[in-house]
Protein backbone atom coordinates (compact mmCIF):
# COMPACT_ATOMS: atom_id res chain seq x y z
CA UNK A 1 0.00 0.00 0.00
CA UNK A 2 1.27 3.46 -0.69
CA UNK A 3 1.49 6.49 1.42
CA UNK A 4 0.32 9.30 -0.71
CA UNK A 5 -1.84 12.33 -0.34
CA UNK A 6 -5.40 12.82 -1.41
CA UNK A 7 -6.28 11.48 -4.76
CA UNK A 8 -2.79 10.08 -5.10
CA UNK A 9 -3.49 7.67 -2.43
CA UNK A 10 -1.99 7.83 0.75
CA UNK A 11 -2.18 9.80 3.54
CA UNK A 12 -5.24 11.26 3.16
CA UNK A 13 -6.24 7.88 3.62
CA UNK A 14 -2.92 6.41 3.25
CA UNK A 15 -3.70 4.31 0.37
CA UNK A 16 -2.51 2.23 -2.44
CA UNK A 17 -1.66 3.45 -5.90
CA UNK A 18 -1.80 1.42 -9.02
CA UNK A 19 -2.88 -2.13 -9.64
CA UNK A 20 -0.97 -5.22 -8.63
CA UNK A 21 0.77 -5.25 -5.29
CA UNK A 22 -0.79 -2.04 -4.18
CA UNK A 23 -3.09 -2.59 -1.33
CA UNK A 24 -3.30 -3.12 2.37
CA UNK A 25 -3.29 -6.56 3.84
CA UNK A 26 -6.98 -6.85 4.29
CA UNK A 27 -8.76 -10.03 3.50
CA UNK A 28 -12.06 -9.40 1.81
CA UNK A 29 -11.18 -11.81 -0.96
CA UNK A 30 -14.14 -14.13 -0.87
CA UNK A 31 -13.45 -17.82 -0.63
CA UNK A 32 -9.68 -17.79 -0.26
CA UNK A 33 -9.26 -17.74 3.48
CA UNK A 34 -10.81 -19.23 6.64
CA UNK A 35 -14.09 -17.86 7.96
CA UNK A 36 -12.51 -16.43 11.13
CA UNK A 37 -10.35 -14.20 8.93
CA UNK A 38 -13.37 -13.10 6.93
CA UNK A 39 -15.09 -11.99 10.13
CA UNK A 40 -11.97 -10.16 11.29
CA UNK A 41 -11.69 -8.36 7.98
CA UNK A 42 -15.33 -7.37 8.09
CA UNK A 43 -14.78 -5.86 11.51
CA UNK A 44 -11.81 -3.88 10.24
CA UNK A 45 -13.73 -2.49 7.30
CA UNK A 46 -15.64 0.71 7.93
CA UNK A 47 -17.97 2.92 5.97
CA UNK A 48 -15.87 5.51 4.17
CA UNK A 49 -15.86 9.05 5.51
CA UNK A 50 -17.10 11.96 3.39
CA UNK A 51 -14.31 14.13 4.79
CA UNK A 52 -11.37 14.74 2.43
CA UNK A 53 -8.03 15.95 3.73
CA UNK A 54 -5.56 17.84 1.58
CA UNK A 55 -2.01 18.52 2.69
CA UNK A 56 0.06 21.18 0.94
CA UNK A 57 2.73 20.72 -0.34
CA UNK A 58 1.95 17.29 -1.74
CA UNK A 59 3.31 14.01 -0.38
CA UNK A 60 7.01 13.60 -1.14
CA UNK A 61 7.58 17.26 -2.02
CA UNK A 62 11.23 18.28 -2.11
CA UNK A 63 12.91 21.66 -1.81
CA UNK A 64 10.04 23.17 0.15
CA UNK A 65 10.93 26.74 1.08
CA UNK A 66 11.23 27.44 4.80
CA UNK A 67 8.65 30.22 4.41
CA UNK A 68 6.46 28.41 1.88
CA UNK A 69 2.83 27.89 2.87
CA UNK A 70 2.40 24.50 4.53
CA UNK A 71 -1.13 23.61 5.52
CA UNK A 72 -3.69 20.90 6.05
CA UNK A 73 -7.27 21.51 4.96
CA UNK A 74 -10.44 19.44 4.95
CA UNK A 75 -13.64 19.50 2.92
CA UNK A 76 -16.93 17.95 4.05
CA UNK A 77 -15.71 17.71 7.61
CA UNK A 78 -13.64 19.19 10.42
CA UNK A 79 -10.04 18.60 11.45
CA UNK A 80 -9.74 16.98 14.87
CA UNK A 81 -5.95 16.78 15.17
CA UNK A 82 -2.92 17.88 13.14
CA UNK A 83 0.72 17.33 14.05
CA UNK A 84 3.86 18.27 12.14
CA UNK A 85 7.04 16.56 13.28
CA UNK A 86 10.69 16.72 12.29
CA UNK A 87 11.37 13.07 11.50
CA UNK A 88 15.02 13.02 12.52
CA UNK A 89 14.55 14.56 15.97
CA UNK A 90 10.88 13.96 16.75
CA UNK A 91 10.45 17.68 17.51
CA UNK A 92 6.88 18.84 16.98
CA UNK A 93 6.20 22.07 15.08
CA UNK A 94 3.65 24.33 16.82
CA UNK A 95 0.65 25.17 14.69
CA UNK A 96 -2.79 26.76 14.73
CA UNK A 97 -6.16 25.30 13.81
CA UNK A 98 -8.60 27.73 12.21
CA UNK A 99 -11.71 28.74 14.15
CA UNK A 100 -13.98 26.77 11.82
CA UNK A 101 -11.79 23.67 12.07
CA UNK A 102 -11.19 23.36 8.34
CA UNK A 103 -7.51 24.32 8.12
CA UNK A 104 -4.23 24.15 10.03
CA UNK A 105 -0.84 25.76 9.50
CA UNK A 106 2.47 25.97 11.39
CA UNK A 107 3.07 29.07 13.46
CA UNK A 108 6.50 29.94 12.12
CA UNK A 109 9.16 29.21 9.56
CA UNK A 110 10.58 25.74 9.12
CA UNK A 111 14.17 24.56 9.46
CA UNK A 112 16.36 24.08 6.39
CA UNK A 113 17.35 20.63 5.14
CA UNK A 114 14.73 18.96 7.31
CA UNK A 115 12.27 16.18 6.54
CA UNK A 116 8.88 16.68 8.17
CA UNK A 117 5.82 14.48 8.46
CA UNK A 118 2.39 16.08 8.63
CA UNK A 119 -0.35 13.88 10.12
CA UNK A 120 -3.96 15.06 10.04
CA UNK A 121 -7.18 13.56 11.36
CA UNK A 122 -10.73 14.68 10.51
CA UNK A 123 -14.35 13.59 10.86
CA UNK A 124 -17.38 14.13 8.67
CA UNK A 125 -20.88 15.10 9.83
CA UNK A 126 -21.65 11.47 10.73
CA UNK A 127 -18.53 11.16 12.86
CA UNK A 128 -16.70 8.95 10.38
CA UNK A 129 -12.97 9.57 10.55
CA UNK A 130 -10.26 9.88 7.94
CA UNK A 131 -6.51 10.30 8.31
CA UNK A 132 -4.01 12.13 6.13
CA UNK A 133 -0.21 12.05 6.09
CA UNK A 134 2.48 13.70 3.99
CA UNK A 135 6.25 13.71 4.18
CA UNK A 136 7.97 16.84 2.86
CA UNK A 137 11.60 17.98 2.79
CA UNK A 138 12.75 21.59 3.03
CA UNK A 139 15.47 23.14 0.90
CA UNK A 140 19.13 22.56 1.63
CA UNK A 141 22.31 23.69 -0.14
CA UNK A 142 22.94 20.14 -1.38
CA UNK A 143 19.43 19.20 -2.45
CA UNK A 144 18.62 22.57 -3.94
CA UNK A 145 21.60 22.28 -6.26
CA UNK A 146 19.86 20.82 -9.30
CA UNK A 147 16.83 19.12 -7.84
CA UNK A 148 16.56 16.58 -5.04
CA UNK A 149 19.23 14.06 -4.15
CA UNK A 150 18.66 11.02 -1.97
CA UNK A 151 19.69 9.56 0.37
CA UNK A 152 20.29 12.45 2.72
CA UNK A 153 23.75 13.74 3.51
CA UNK A 154 25.14 12.04 6.61
CA UNK A 155 22.54 9.28 6.67
CA UNK A 156 23.10 5.55 7.16
CA UNK A 157 21.13 3.29 4.82
CA UNK A 158 20.80 -0.33 3.79
CA UNK A 159 22.80 -2.05 1.06
CA UNK A 160 20.03 -1.66 -1.54
CA UNK A 161 19.72 2.13 -1.45
CA UNK A 162 20.45 3.68 -4.86
CA UNK A 163 21.53 7.28 -5.33
CA UNK A 164 18.55 9.04 -6.90
CA UNK A 165 18.53 12.52 -8.43
CA UNK A 166 15.10 13.96 -9.24
CA UNK A 167 15.63 17.09 -11.32
CA UNK A 168 13.48 20.18 -11.08
CA UNK A 169 12.86 20.05 -14.83
CA UNK A 170 13.40 17.75 -17.79
CA UNK A 171 17.04 17.43 -18.82
CA UNK A 172 17.68 17.71 -22.56
CA UNK A 173 21.45 17.13 -22.56
CA UNK A 174 21.64 14.05 -20.36
CA UNK A 175 25.28 13.26 -21.08
CA UNK A 176 26.40 16.73 -20.01
CA UNK A 177 24.36 16.58 -16.82
CA UNK A 178 25.43 13.06 -15.91
CA UNK A 179 29.08 13.98 -16.34
CA UNK A 180 28.69 16.63 -13.65
CA UNK A 181 27.61 14.06 -11.05
CA UNK A 182 30.23 11.65 -9.75
CA UNK A 183 29.39 8.79 -7.38
CA UNK A 184 32.08 6.67 -5.75
CA UNK A 185 32.33 4.15 -2.95
CA UNK A 186 35.11 3.48 -0.46
CA UNK A 187 34.58 -0.20 -1.35
CA UNK A 188 35.98 0.43 -4.83
CA UNK A 189 32.80 -0.81 -6.50
CA UNK A 190 32.11 0.57 -9.98
CA UNK A 191 29.09 2.87 -9.88
CA UNK A 192 27.12 3.70 -13.04
CA UNK A 193 24.21 6.07 -13.69
CA UNK A 194 20.95 5.14 -15.42
CA UNK A 195 18.27 7.50 -16.74
CA UNK A 196 14.71 6.35 -16.15
CA UNK A 197 13.17 9.37 -17.86
CA UNK A 198 14.11 12.98 -18.54
CA UNK A 199 14.10 14.02 -14.90
CA UNK A 200 15.30 11.01 -12.88
CA UNK A 201 18.86 9.71 -12.78
CA UNK A 202 19.84 6.83 -10.46
CA UNK A 203 23.28 5.45 -9.62
CA UNK A 204 24.13 1.96 -8.32
CA UNK A 205 26.91 -0.64 -8.44
CA UNK A 206 26.51 -4.02 -10.15
CA UNK A 207 25.73 -5.71 -6.85
CA UNK A 208 24.45 -4.32 -3.56
CA UNK A 209 26.71 -1.83 -1.76
CA UNK A 210 29.33 -3.34 0.52
CA UNK A 211 28.33 -3.11 4.19
CA UNK A 212 30.25 -0.49 6.13
CA UNK A 213 31.35 1.43 3.04
CA UNK A 214 31.03 5.18 2.48
CA UNK A 215 29.43 6.54 -0.67
CA UNK A 216 30.42 10.00 -1.89
CA UNK A 217 28.39 12.04 -4.37
CA UNK A 218 30.10 15.05 -5.92
CA UNK A 219 28.12 17.54 -7.97
CA UNK A 220 29.73 20.20 -10.17
CA UNK A 221 27.49 22.78 -11.79
CA UNK A 222 27.76 26.47 -12.62
CA UNK A 223 31.28 26.53 -11.20
CA UNK A 224 30.11 25.32 -7.80
CA UNK A 225 30.97 21.96 -6.24
CA UNK A 226 28.97 20.24 -3.56
CA UNK A 227 29.58 16.92 -1.85
CA UNK A 228 27.14 14.57 -0.15
CA UNK A 229 28.23 11.44 1.72
CA UNK A 230 26.29 8.61 3.31
CA UNK A 231 27.17 5.38 5.04
CA UNK A 232 26.10 1.84 4.19
CA UNK A 233 25.04 -0.04 7.30
CA UNK A 234 24.91 -3.77 7.86
CA UNK A 235 23.53 -5.96 5.09
CA UNK A 236 19.93 -7.08 5.60
CA UNK A 237 18.10 -8.94 2.86
CA UNK A 238 14.69 -10.39 3.62
CA UNK A 239 13.12 -12.91 1.26
CA UNK A 240 9.35 -13.40 1.20
CA UNK A 241 8.29 -16.75 -0.24
CA UNK A 242 4.65 -16.35 -1.24
CA UNK A 243 4.31 -20.10 -1.69
CA UNK A 244 5.56 -21.19 1.73
CA UNK A 245 4.25 -17.95 3.28
CA UNK A 246 7.44 -17.39 5.23
CA UNK A 247 9.93 -14.51 5.26
CA UNK A 248 13.58 -15.24 5.93
CA UNK A 249 15.64 -12.35 7.30
CA UNK A 250 19.35 -12.61 6.51
CA UNK A 251 21.77 -10.16 8.12
CA UNK A 252 25.41 -10.11 7.04
CA UNK A 253 24.97 -13.52 5.46
CA UNK A 254 23.35 -15.24 8.46
CA UNK A 255 19.67 -16.05 8.92
CA UNK A 256 18.53 -14.24 12.06
CA UNK A 257 14.76 -14.80 11.89
CA UNK A 258 12.01 -16.57 9.94
CA UNK A 259 8.62 -14.86 10.10
CA UNK A 260 5.23 -16.27 8.96
CA UNK A 261 3.56 -13.85 6.52
CA UNK A 262 0.43 -13.42 4.45
CA UNK A 263 0.95 -11.92 0.98
CA UNK A 264 -1.32 -11.10 -1.96
CA UNK A 265 -4.28 -13.30 -2.77
CA UNK A 266 -4.81 -14.97 -6.14
CA UNK A 267 -6.93 -11.98 -7.20
CA UNK A 268 -4.33 -9.44 -6.02
CA UNK A 269 -0.92 -11.14 -6.02
CA UNK A 270 2.14 -9.39 -4.67
CA UNK A 271 4.85 -8.32 -7.10
CA UNK A 272 7.76 -10.69 -7.47
CA UNK A 273 11.16 -9.03 -7.44
CA UNK A 274 13.69 -7.04 -5.47
CA UNK A 275 12.27 -4.08 -3.59
CA UNK A 276 13.87 -1.54 -1.27
CA UNK A 277 12.36 0.02 1.85
CA UNK A 278 11.96 3.71 1.06
CA UNK A 279 9.79 4.96 3.94
CA UNK A 280 8.75 3.82 7.42
CA UNK A 281 5.49 4.70 9.20
CA UNK A 282 4.58 3.59 12.72
CA UNK A 283 0.94 3.83 11.65
CA UNK A 284 -0.77 4.55 8.37
CA UNK A 285 -4.37 4.71 7.09
CA UNK A 286 -5.22 2.39 4.21
CA UNK A 287 -8.43 2.75 2.22
CA UNK A 288 -9.21 0.82 -0.96
CA UNK A 289 -11.77 3.30 -2.32
CA UNK A 290 -9.11 5.87 -3.15
CA UNK A 291 -7.66 3.53 -5.76
CA UNK A 292 -10.90 2.04 -7.02
CA UNK A 293 -10.83 -1.10 -4.90
CA UNK A 294 -14.45 -1.31 -3.78
CA UNK A 295 -17.05 -3.96 -3.12
CA UNK A 296 -20.31 -4.33 -5.06
CA UNK A 297 -22.11 -1.95 -2.71
CA UNK A 298 -19.51 0.73 -3.41
CA UNK A 299 -17.86 0.55 0.00
CA UNK A 300 -14.08 0.25 0.12
CA UNK A 301 -12.62 -3.24 0.00
CA UNK A 302 -10.69 -2.21 3.09
CA UNK A 303 -10.66 0.88 5.30
CA UNK A 304 -8.25 0.48 8.19
CA UNK A 305 -7.35 3.66 10.05
CA UNK A 306 -4.13 2.71 11.81
CA UNK A 307 -2.18 -0.02 10.06
CA UNK A 308 0.91 -0.41 12.26
CA UNK A 309 4.58 -0.78 11.35
CA UNK A 310 4.20 0.00 7.65
CA UNK A 311 7.19 0.22 5.32
CA UNK A 312 6.86 1.22 1.69
CA UNK A 313 8.37 -1.10 -0.92
CA UNK A 314 7.17 0.46 -4.18
CA UNK A 315 5.87 3.83 -5.30
CA UNK A 316 2.77 2.16 -6.74
CA UNK A 317 1.68 0.95 -3.36
CA UNK A 318 3.29 -2.23 -2.09
CA UNK A 319 3.92 -2.17 1.66
CA UNK A 320 5.16 -4.65 4.22
CA UNK A 321 3.19 -3.94 7.39
CA UNK A 322 1.63 -5.16 10.59
CA UNK A 323 -1.72 -6.96 10.43
CA UNK A 324 -3.71 -6.99 13.69
CA UNK A 325 -7.02 -8.14 12.21
CA UNK A 326 -5.75 -11.47 10.90
CA UNK A 327 -6.07 -14.59 13.03
CA UNK A 328 -3.43 -17.23 13.67
CA UNK A 329 -5.12 -19.22 10.89
CA UNK A 330 -3.67 -16.75 8.37
CA UNK A 331 0.04 -16.10 8.92
CA UNK A 332 2.19 -18.74 7.31
CA UNK A 333 -0.89 -20.52 6.03
CA UNK A 334 -2.90 -18.44 3.54
CA UNK A 335 -2.42 -15.36 1.33
CA UNK A 336 -5.24 -12.89 1.94
CA UNK A 337 -4.05 -9.39 1.05
CA UNK A 338 -4.63 -7.00 -1.83
CA UNK A 339 -0.93 -7.12 -2.65
CA UNK A 340 0.98 -6.13 0.45
CA UNK A 341 2.94 -8.38 2.78
CA UNK A 342 1.37 -8.70 6.22
CA UNK A 343 3.07 -9.69 9.49
CA UNK A 344 1.25 -10.50 12.72
CA UNK A 345 0.74 -7.48 14.98
CA UNK A 346 -1.58 -5.98 17.58
CA UNK A 347 -3.84 -2.98 17.18
CA UNK A 348 -1.85 0.17 17.89
CA UNK A 349 1.42 -1.67 17.36
CA UNK A 350 2.36 -1.36 21.03
CA UNK A 351 3.61 -4.91 21.58
CA UNK A 352 7.30 -4.95 20.67
CA UNK A 353 7.36 -8.75 20.75
CA UNK A 354 5.08 -9.07 17.73
CA UNK A 355 6.74 -10.11 14.43
CA UNK A 356 5.76 -6.87 12.67
CA UNK A 357 7.21 -4.74 15.49
CA UNK A 358 10.44 -6.73 15.49
CA UNK A 359 10.86 -6.39 11.73
CA UNK A 360 10.09 -2.65 11.81
CA UNK A 361 12.56 -2.02 14.63
CA UNK A 362 15.26 -4.08 12.90
CA UNK A 363 14.86 -2.55 9.42
CA UNK A 364 16.26 0.65 7.93
CA UNK A 365 15.68 2.70 4.81
CA UNK A 366 17.56 0.98 2.00
CA UNK A 367 17.11 -2.59 3.22
CA UNK A 368 16.17 -5.11 0.54
CA UNK A 369 12.96 -7.17 0.54
CA UNK A 370 12.75 -9.85 -2.16
CA UNK A 371 9.43 -11.51 -3.06
CA UNK A 372 9.44 -14.83 -4.89
CA UNK A 373 6.94 -17.52 -5.92
CA UNK A 374 4.00 -15.09 -6.06
CA UNK A 375 1.28 -15.79 -8.64
CA UNK A 376 1.87 -12.35 -10.13
CA UNK A 377 2.89 -12.60 -13.81
CA UNK A 378 3.76 -8.96 -14.43
CA UNK A 379 7.24 -7.47 -14.22
CA UNK A 380 8.10 -5.05 -11.46
CA UNK A 381 9.35 -1.88 -13.16
CA UNK A 382 12.82 -0.84 -11.92
CA UNK A 383 11.65 2.76 -11.49
CA UNK A 384 8.67 1.74 -9.36
CA UNK A 385 10.06 3.09 -6.13
CA UNK A 386 13.67 2.04 -5.57
CA UNK A 387 13.41 -1.22 -7.50
CA UNK A 388 16.57 -0.55 -9.54
CA UNK A 389 17.99 -4.01 -8.81
CA UNK A 390 15.39 -5.69 -11.04
CA UNK A 391 17.35 -4.55 -14.08
CA UNK A 392 20.33 -6.56 -15.32
CA UNK A 393 23.74 -4.90 -15.19
CA UNK A 394 24.01 -4.77 -18.99
CA UNK A 395 20.63 -3.04 -19.24
CA UNK A 396 21.58 -0.71 -16.43
CA UNK A 397 24.84 0.36 -18.06
CA UNK A 398 23.04 0.85 -21.38
CA UNK A 399 20.90 3.50 -19.69
CA UNK A 400 23.87 5.72 -18.95
CA UNK A 401 24.16 8.79 -21.17
CA UNK A 402 27.92 8.98 -20.81
CA UNK A 403 28.67 5.60 -22.40
TrEMBL record:
GO terms of molecular function: acyltransferase activity; peptidoglycan L,D-transpeptidase activity
Keyword Membrane: yes
Pathway(s) where this gene product acts: Cell wall biogenesis; peptidoglycan biosynthesis; Glycan biosynthesis
Active site (catalytic residues): 321, 340
GO CC list: extracellular region
Entries under Pfam families matching the protein: Big_10, YkuD
Location of the region described as Disordered in the Swiss-Prot/TrEMBL record: 25-49
GO BP term, pick one: peptidoglycan-protein cross-linking
Annotated ranges, domain L,D-TPase catalytic: 236-372
Signal peptide: 1-18
PANTHER family per record: L,D-TRANSPEPTIDASE (PTHR30582), L,D-TRANSPEPTIDASE YCIB-RELATED (PTHR30582:SF2)
Protein name: Lipoprotein
Organism field: Streptomyces olivochromogenes
Record lineage: Bacteria, Bacillati, Actinomycetota, Actinomycetes, Kitasatosporales
Amino acid sequence: MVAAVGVLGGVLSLTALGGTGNAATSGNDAGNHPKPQARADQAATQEASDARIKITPRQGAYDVGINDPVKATVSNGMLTKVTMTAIATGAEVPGTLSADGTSWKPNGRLERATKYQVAAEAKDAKGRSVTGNATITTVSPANNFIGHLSPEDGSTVGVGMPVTVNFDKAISNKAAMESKIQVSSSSGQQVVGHWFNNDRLDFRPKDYWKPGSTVTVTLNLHGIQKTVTFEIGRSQISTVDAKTKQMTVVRDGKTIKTIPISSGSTEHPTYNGQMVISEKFKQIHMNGATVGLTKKDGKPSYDIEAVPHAMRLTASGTFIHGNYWGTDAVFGKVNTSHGCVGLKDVKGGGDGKQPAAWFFDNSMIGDVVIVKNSEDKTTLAPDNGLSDWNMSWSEWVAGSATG
